[in-house]
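Task: complex structure prediction.
Instruction: return structure tokens for all chains below.
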Amino acid sequence: MTTVVARPEAPTPPAPARRGRRGRQDWSAYLLFVPAMIPILAFSVYPLVQGILLGFTDSQSGLGAVTTFTGVENYVRLLDYDLFWQSFGIGLIWAFAVTIIQFVAALCLALLLNANLWGQGIARTIALIPWAMPPVIIAIMWRFMLHPTYGAINGGLGALGLPDDTNWLGTAQWALPAVIVVGVWAGMPQTTITLLAGLQGIDDQLHEAAQIDGASVWQRFWNITIPGLRPVIVAITTLDFINNFNSFALVYVLTAGAYGTMLPMLFAYNEAFRYGNFGLASAMGNVIVIVIAAFLFVYLRAQAKARTA
Amino acid sequence: MSVITDAPRAQDSGGQDDDRSRSRRTRRRVWRALQYVALVLFVCFLGFPLLFLVTAAFKTQQELQSPDPQLLPAQWNLDNFIGAIERAGLGQAALNSLVVALATTLIVVVVSLPAAYALARFQTRLRGLATGWILLSQVFPFILIIIPLFLMLRPLGLNNTLGGLVVVYVVWSLPFALWMLRGYVAAIPSELEEAGAMDGASRLRVLVSIIMPLLGPGLVATALFAFIGSWNEFFFALVLIKDEALQTLPQRLALFVGSEGQVALGQLAAGSLLACIPSLVFFAIIQRRLTSGLLSGAVKG
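Output:
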């Protein structure tokens, strides 16, 4: 900084020279992109385009299999594929439940962490723990917690005199709720920290002024905190929803999709790598993208309208 | 400071309406107490599972399966850790994970640094495209990318190799690394570079002796994120690696859950705990920055 201040009267080069320099900059900018562009184009853009196209073929996993273009045949097949739509419904329940519960819980926690309570430094560190753990390990850990005989959950329930023999991950009634709780746990840190950062960006003076005017805690929450947080809320819930819908490792290790927890990603994975139907699995991927995009479109448009209204 | 904060202003109301201010103070005290209760509940919910895993890792099989379980192990013995490394083959898996994560990190940093610099400093059409791609790549489900990648890597002889996994991880980590590094470069005033150029330093010289030292912390943070991302990743490894000797740590542990892990609960816990160490250390280091500067900047951006 000091170097800059020391030379405020730096002579500006003549106009033509500057234009020449910008031309060279543009060229070197492209050159700087090359090392990152090659892998992205070759192993990300190209496969993605190919993946979308594969959804319109009968591609199989076998080495000698011939792939032919089949148009919308996969999608016609998917229409009657009840198991897929069942899995799709489970995916929607899972993604909505986890995102909403996560958001409400994380907002409460963020407000508490921002409320000048004693010990909030430690609480903040502990709140980050799930972030520091690989999804596979989170799932293994919760299998310990939820174990029907040795688990801490049933242990705790037993100590309280409640029924302590529930097989959380092994019954159709409880598997999905249990898996949703683990999903909420795993995603809490990102949501909490993002909301906390948003809270800290709200001007304290607004709260003080409202308090002087006699606004209650509740009124201030609805009229100052929520509007102030709105952009952050929209961003984090959108991201969470996408992440949750695309989630794989957690549920793969927890239940492998058994007992009504077959998320769409697990279903598509099985279709592709267990049964070898690459084309059909890609078609499922395309359907999933379209549905996610439709939800996001509706949600983001409603939010944009609410902001202008 | 926030909605729930009590203002010290409560005391100002003076001696009049003593009753009202007292009842208000009681209400405030109850509210505070409720806040503490809620905070403790959250801390238990988020912290207890890890505590349970840690204690399980030190327990003997008898303790784990005892009908009258205790939270703390009778003796803190390391048998499970030794057993996990030797018997479950976690040592080899950890080595594979380490090699893959280190190679990925190195390549990601080398490749993304120039591009991040260009993204931050030059107004080109690529900038909009790159930003669009970074966002778009987050939306698409992995299944759409992994099948073509699987088909592409097969003729290249990269299926079922750690090299192939590195290729996938590099591409998978690049968007986020680019995004992060771009932010760090943009935070360095470009006047510094101009001043350097004015003093007659070459472009390369400016980059090496002015930008690089200032970019150090950002570069380290980006590298760590890339490392942890690859270290934790599971889905791509599951699809691409079939050879048992080449499996990564999360993959090995996920398999262990279904097989011997059923009986060797303590070893499973110990192995899981070992797999967390790199990320736990990393988050302990950066947690202060994570809660303050890093993300508040990211949110405002």
